[in-house]
Amino acid sequence: MTHRTLENSAIDLTGERRAASRQPGTDTFDPYGDTLREECGVFGVFGHPDAAAITALGLHALQHRGQEAAGIVTFDGQRFHSERRLGLVGDAFSDGEAIKRLPGHIAVGHVRYSTTGETILRNVQPLFAELDGGGFAIAHNGNLTNGLTLRRQIIRDGAICQSTSDTEVMLHLVARSKRPRFTERFIDALKLIEGAYAFVGLTNKKLVGARDPLGIRPLVLGELDGHPILTSETCALDIIGARFVRDVEPGEVIVFSSDKVETLRPFPAMTPRPCIFEYIYFARPDSVVGGRSVYQVRKNMGYQLAAEAPAEADLVVPVPDSGVPAAIGYSQASGLPYELGIIRNHYVGRTFIQPTQSVRDQGVRMKHSANRSVVEGKRIVLIDDSLVRGTTSVKIVRMMREAGAREVHFRISSPPITHPDYYGIDTPDRDKLLAATHDLEGMRRYIGADSLAFLSIDGIYRAMGFEGRDNLQPQFTDHCFTGEYPTPLTDRTGEVPSRQLSLLAEAS
Fold this sequence. Notes:
With about 500 residues, this protein is an alpha+beta fold.
């Protein structure tokens, strides 16, 4: 296997979510530190002569899902080839030289934002290992809620882990299975894990995809020139001119080889509960997720918000870019003019070293600046898609007042976030979530707005086309608002289900 990388000497052995760049009072300003962090994006293609180039283009379209690292693994009929880099897809693959080092007709790719494991090269995916039956590379979107528990167990049993990513657990579990066929070994591994996942992997003969039984993380099937594509979002199909075929079903395992396609369903059927934040925040607006236009759903959220939380105001102003579709919907439903009262700088990097506290306090202006000619003397309704810590909202409200806004009414097109996520969204701990520590009036005072309102939980379900949330059988994974987690949280509780213990014993 050829393997070219740019090494980073930092080491993290905890496997816990990153926090250093988000600690208040540090000298590193992160303009995205008060947002929900992206998950990851996966892409795979089978049988195409330009597999690596197509994968790189697909990863470009998925860049919004992770900006910390990117990687591609290919197989050329004899050897596996890997290119994994820290940074953006364009930095790693746009010059063409890396693509030349990735020959082959099968490829898998990954863009990463770390939710477990540090941002170091050994955690960059796709991860690769030589197994009993040959090489295996895997890319993962999501988070295993028993990943640390399984990791400790396999290390006690003698495994040597090379990364701090929960994804590596899958390589070990596949390797430990005693089944004769790769597909059977892969399914054995899936039966041991819990949480949220969309996997795309390759061997020397197969491209394999899998989605968790609740369908928390998305995965779609496409087709390009007769060759199958697996990817996180339909926007990645659009950029390469591929045809959307269908969503990979929750709990489905799909395997492509040169002579057949296998569709397997190794789990009992469950009522799907896809992640609601794909619609609120993560997916690109031009994607279609679960048959719904993300852009239209976000506009619908704005319509619902205008009905639930009207404001006496002159203008509707989005917090770009996340609040734009909802602000359009709020404007259309309320009859208030829509204006760009905030201009976003699209060329801000993820981090920026600032020498003094006074300069750090102005850091939000690197990403957003007020359009004074629009907001001066006006009563404005600010629209954003979510409120996490609230620190950026404080600065945006202050910026609007300094630009001359008479009144600032803040409206959020999702319910209050009161619980952290363990399925691939990097949210702060509960004591850092503003809505978990303040009531509505306390939040309003904290951010300094004249009024504050959130979309209700039933309102967000109405925006999806339902009458409201089915409290007995919720239609989506919405634990960040409700605290109702749809799977066991073994790493948090320490309680390993007996079924997992018995399966682990069989695999040992």
